[in-house]
Amino acid sequence: MQAVADNLFKALSDPTRRAIFERLSREGEMTVRLLTDNSGVSQPAVSKHLGVLKQAGLVRGRHRGRETHYSAQPRALAPLVDWMSFYSRFWHDRFDRLENLLKRMGP
Amino acid sequence: MIDKPITTTATRSVVIERELPHPPEKVWRALTEGMLIKEWLMENDFLPVAGHRFNFRSKPVPNWNGVIDCEVLVVEPNKKLAYSWGTLGSESVVLWTLVATSGGTLVRMEHSGFRPDQEAAYKGAQYGWQKFIGNLERVIAGLE
Questions:
Q1: Residue B33 belongs to what domain range?
Q2: What SS3 class is residue A36?
Q3: Which pLDDT score, from 0 to 100, does residue B5 have?
């Protein structure tokens, strides 16, 4: 589970990968060639990014003819949502403890 | 006092603001003196010196040794404190801001999940987290 979250964070820490993921989310299934056209990034670079996204489960490839069609897998984002809810609870609890400590510290 | 939790998926961060009835100097001590930090946060070897690397240590749990690798990034006494927060391969930043109020101190903590962005190369666009997460909300909402 933790390895899954690590891959996800790593994959999404790069703005180019986020842009590719978002484009696939918005425009549906696309080939590497389509993703590369007018993108300002080389095809090998796009392929490499797709590989990282795939490893994180954010993207799925489907072979059709000689080309692979990639699509976004938004369900893979769940650990990101978990991260925020975990730290929200964590810091609320720590704020309570900080407040208690300050009361005990005296002036 | 009044709590203002802001933890929406639209912000990429966890932000907590709370007004505490104590002066900034006292809150600062609680945030920067190792023995006091231990009382409310975790065991540590923190020093209020920019560039200082330290650890927070909590009880190990399955799949986690309980160690958080940190580096002090910003120290502005009684005003601002920031450190990186590295754990389980992910890097984030915790930023504390203190503002004196008539009744004490407004304490704001922002824990940002990711380091600030470089510019996106792809399609020449700037895909900041704010925008990305904003768009994601719609995607996630669509899953339900």
A1: 3-115+125-143
A2: helix
A3: 42
Helices (H), B8-101: 24-32, 34-40
Closest-CA residue of B relative to A46 is B122
Class of domain A2-104: mainly alpha
Kindly report which listed range (A102-106, B31-35, B123-127) carries the lowest average pLDDT score: B123-127
Is 70 exceeded by the pLDDT of residue B9? no
Domain boundaries, chain A: 2-104
Domain with residue B64: its CATH number is 3.30.530.20
> CA angle, B75 as apex, B73 and B79 as ends, to 5°?
130
CB spacing of A105 vs B29 below 8 angstroms: yes
For the stretch A50-89, pLDDT in tens is: 999 999 999 999 998 889 999 999 888 877 767 777 788 8
A55: left (phi over 0), alpha (psi -120 to 50) or beta: alpha
A102 touches chain B (CB under 8 A): yes
Number of structural domains, chain B?
1
Is some CB atom of chain A closer than 8 A to the CB atom of B95?
Answer: no
Average pLDDT (B81-89) is 84
